[in-house]
Amino acid sequence: MAVPALLASALLAVSAGAASAGAASAGELQLLMFEQAGCIYCAQWNAEIAPQYPLTDEGKAAPLMRLQLREPLPDGLSLVAPPVFTPTFVLVEDGIEAGRIEGYPGADFFWPLLAGLIAGSAAD
After folding, report:
1. Residue 76's domain is classified under what CATH number?
2. What pTM was estimated for this model as a whole?
């Protein structure tokens, strides 16, 4: 998938997630990263974002949990739909999906998209 298509997909996913996030109550946030072996966009995210993620405000607000795309979900997680692309980042609040970013659009877009999801969740 080309980067512009990833960006369009990510923006649509964020806007849909932000709308659904209003229905949830404020609670414990976590960022799920669905990945798989051979994913070049996962490798790019790992190089550009992963080392600093836990040190950022976003990383502290929504700690990262890595999951394999084809593996079963851990108990206690409820997603709107199973992820299809890698990487897919799903913000969960108390185990319930509050929004997602499908694909990795690059660091310049990832941070604002994630901040928007977290802010939408915190507005509840």
Report:
1. 3.40.30.10
2. 0.78
Q: Which residues pair with 35 in a beta bridge?
A: 68
Q: In terms of DSSP bridges, do strands 88-93 and 64-68 run parallel, antiparallel, or are they unpaired?
A: unpaired
Which pair of structure tokens corresponds to residue 28? 């414990």
Q: What is the pLDDT of residues 64-97, one digit of tens each?
A: 999 999 999 999 999 999 999 999 999 999 999 9
> What gap in Å lies between CA 35 and CA 68, rounded to an integer?
5
CA angle (21, 69, 116) in 5-degree steps = 25
d(C-alpha 106, C-alpha 30), whole Å: 21
91, burial (CB in 10 Å: exposed 0-12, middle 13-18, buried 19+): buried
CA distance 93 to 121: 8
Cα–Cα distance for residue pair 61/57, rounded to 1 Å: 6
Number of domains in the chain: 1
Query: Could you list the residue range(s) of the whole structural domain that residue 107 is in?
Result: 3-122
